[in-house]
Amino acid sequence: MTKHSNTSAKHRSRATKRLQDHEMPHTRRKNEVVSGLGAVLPQIRITPRRLKESLTTAELLTLFMFSVYAILGCIYAAEVNNALTFVVVNCCFMWMQCALAVSVAETGSGRVFRSLLLARRFFLLPAIYFIYSQAHLYITHINPRDYDNVLAQWDFALFGVYPTQWIYQFAHPILTEFLQICYFLYFWIPLSLGAEFYATRPTHVYIRYSLYVACVSYALYLGYFFMPAIGPCFTLHDFSLLNRELPGLFFTEPLRAIVNNGSGAGTSAPHITAHRNCMPSGHTMVTLLNMMIAFRWNSRFRWIYFVIGSGIIVSTVYLRYHYVVDLLAGALVTVLALVGGRLLERFLSKMGFLNA
To answer: Which are the contacts of 99, defined by CB distance < 8 A and separation ≥ 6?
Structure first.
């Protein structure tokens, strides 16, 4: 009886081992990566020399923006809720950016290297969003004036009409539905295009793409401080009537509500709480950049980006989010940001930043 029990136990043990070997290789690989990270991260030594050798221009720009908002948080700590918390989070983001750059440069190869590299390359996405989310905290303190009347008059001087009122004659629920979906897909284009370049192109292509996205995004966020505005949906139209005047079919109102909540307008006093991020038009800047790159670098999905991107640009006026001069300014700032990014890249290379 004892011998039979011992034999059965051995069979069960072998069967269990075979089952684990067959069904859980991904778990062991994950454990290897985690243990590898545990071995690498404590050894990270962030020094000026190592940073100079490893940081890209896009990463240096990101560190600069984190520094700007950390300084603003200290200056306006008494006036902005949780400003010091944001200062701490900005510092944590800065450390993570530096740690990823140094650790990738020193790891070299293997699963741990690939995991760190993936985290480093896509760290820019949450960084850009977090930097964007802080802009509205300080705009009204630095520049408390709204420039909507000026922007509306510039539109009228250029076109002889207010474009958001003129385009209303073409309103139709099907068109509204399509344009609202396009407007909402604004974030999808850089995400998908970046993923495509990361997966299918050489490293230097993705790094150059990251530089362009960073330059345009940060130029946009700094631009908000010069001419704060909330948009024609508040100044030339009745914001409370938007769903009635521009109805869609199925997704328009839910998507519009998400956009309003994300821009601070989903409150009982939207004209007060809405973010002053109308001028220049970020949807125009980022969309134009990605459409241009998709065709210039021969993306597989360039015509999809063209259709959606064209819809995004038209939607900014049709849906009353922007004045036309916001779009024109956005196109100009995009060109200046790209030229400035390339000049900065060359300057940093001359200064000895090896990975710039």
So the answer is: 41, 44, 46
Tell me if residue 315 falls in helix, strand or coil: helix
- The vertex-307 CA angle with 276 and 326, nearest 5°, equals 25
Amino acid present at 122: F
Residues 81-100: pLDDT tens digits?
A: 999 999 999 999 999 999 98
Instruction: Give phi and psi for 15, each to the nearest 5.
Output: -65, -40
Q: Would you state the pLDDT for residue 20? A: 45
Which residues have a Cβ under 8 Å from the Cβ of 147 and sit 6 or more positions away? Answer: 227, 228, 229, 279
Q: What is the 3-state secondary structure (H, E, C) of 198-242?
A: HHHCCHHHHHHHHHHHHHHHHHHHHHCCCCCCCCHHHHCCCHHHH
- Residue ranges of the alpha helices (H) in 123-184? 124-142, 148-159, 163-166, 173-184
**pLDDT above 90: residue 44:** no
- For the whole model, what pTM was predicted? 0.84
3-state SS class at 70: helix
Taking the C-alpha atoms of residue 53 and residue 46, their distance in angstroms, rounded to an integer, is: 11
Of 10-14, 245-249, 317-321, 336-340, the range with the lowest mean pLDDT is 10-14
Taken in order 80, 67, 71, 213, the sign of the CA dihedral is: negative
